[in-house]
Amino acid sequence: MTRICDYEGSRYRKEFWESGNRQYEDMAERIALAKMLPPTGKRLIEVGAGFGRMADMYKGYEQVVLLDYARTQLEEAQRYLGQDNRFIFVVADVYQLPFVSHLFDALVMIRVMHHLVDAPAALSELKRIISPDGAAIIEYASKRHLKAILRWLLRRQEWNPFNPEPHEFVELNIDFHPAWMRQQFTAANFDIQEIRSLSHFRLPLLKKFFPPQFLAALDGWAQPTGRWWQYTPSIFVKAAPQKKTADIVTGFFKCPACHNHTLKKTENALFCPSCQRHWEYRDGIYDFRTPA
Ligand SMILES: C[S@@+](CC[C@H](N)C(=O)[O-])C[C@H]1O[C@@H](n2cnc3c(N)ncnc32)[C@H](O)[C@@H]1O
Ligand SMILES: [Zn+2]
Fold first, then answer.
1. First and final CA of the chain: distance in angstroms?
2. 78: left (phi over 0), alpha (psi -120 to 50) or beta
3. How far apart are CA 114 and CA 119, in angstroms?
4. Count helices and strands in the chain by DSSP H and E runs
5. Which ligand 1 atom lies nearest to the CA of residue 73?
6. Cβ atoms of 77 and 53 closer than 8 Å
7. Among candidates 287, 291, 292, which has minimal Cα distance to 74?
8. Which atom of ligand 1 is nearest to the CA of 17?
9. What is the mean pLDDT of the chain?
């Protein structure tokens, strides 16, 4: 089985965002997403949505699926976002998404790729669920950023940031080379439409002396240079499926175990008549991680 970075029970929102002095990064990501995401559409999915940090940016979408491997992250998202019938909460694994193909007009995945040991498999599964006219905004962490290059040149770091292979610097935390990543998008039959480089100013000293709004505005101004070169720690890619035709989509969920499209809704589950599994539905969350 593929190794997975499990956030079950983690205090990600509190520890990483609220006490982590990361307003600048949050604002810079919002600028990029606002520029890249089509403002309106029918159905959007965020994969690895965590506590729904970005969900307020999906107001133009009629239906929004927030998917995460960790149920407790989605429970936090329910508290964070309050009651809104547009949201559907789904526990599942990016490698086995429980949806029929071509279901979504838009897909967002931010700060998740760096936890994925099999990026090619994930990209191909993401591509499968997007409509032929849809768009995916996918962020990844880059190994070829200025700080890493400098450290390597000064012999303070052993690994070479120009080596194209992914670099797992801590278990299940992986940085990617932009050229390697471009190849994986193409191999998954994605066309890259736009690239933005983010977090030019992710330096403690700058963050200490300048307000996050100011640094984020500067970053937003510099982000489009990602089209020509990428030397920052975070890269946003807007990609669209290469093939523009597809069968008409019918259905919504599919069984992640046997791929059957006709799940039957019971009071507390979706039942798969083909493999006899029950996928639990409890307190507003569909769970496709472990059959009930
Ligand atoms: C660093 S958090 C990012 C959360 C959110 N995207 C954000 O930017 O605030 C990474 C999230 O990816 C989820 N994740 C990791 N591996 C996953 C997988 N295989 N399938 C689905 N979600 C996964 C984790 O549970 C976690 O909530
Ligand atoms: Zn099944």
1. 20
2. alpha
3. 9
4. 8, 13
5. 27
6. no
7. 287
8. 9
9. 96
- Does ligand 1 lie within 6 Å of residue 37's CB atom? no
pLDDT per residue as tens digits for the range 18-58: 998 899 999 999 999 999 999 999 999 999 999 999 999 99
Measure 127 CA to ligand 2 centroid, in angstroms. Answer: 22
Q: Is residue 199 within 8 Å of 219, Cβ to Cβ?
A: yes
Q: CA 240, CA 105: separation in Å to the nearest integer?
A: 10
Please tell me if the CB atom of residue 125 comes closer than 6 angstroms to any atom of ligand 1.
Answer: no
HSE-CB at 148 with a 13 A cutoff on CA atoms is 22
Please report how the helices 212-222 and 23-36 are oriented relative to each other, as an axis angle in degrees rounded to 10.
Answer: 40
Q: Is the CB of 232 under 6 A from ligand 1?
A: no
Six-digit token string for 1: 């089985």
Query: Mutation test of ligand 1: which of 6, 16, 68 has the most ligand atoms closer than 8 Å to its C-beta?
Result: 68
Cα-to-centroid distance, 261 and ligand 2 (Å): 8
- Protein residue whose Cα sits closest to atom 12 of ligand 1: 48
Query: Is the Cβ atom of 138 under 6 angstroms away from ligand 1?
Result: no
pTM over 0.90: yes
Per cent of the chain over pLDDT 90 is 95
Nearest CA residue ID for atom 13, ligand 1: 48
pLDDT of residue 244: 74
* C-alpha to C-alpha distance for 137 and 193, rounded to whole angstroms: 10
What is residue 58's DSSP assignment?
Answer: G
Shortest-distance atom of ligand 1 to CA 6: 25
pLDDT digits (tens, 9 = 90+) for 229-261: 999 999 999 999 998 776 778 899 999 999 999
Atom of ligand 1 nearest to the CA of 94: 20
Q: What is the pLDDT of residue 97?
A: 98
Cα of 110 to ligand 2 centre, how many Å? 29
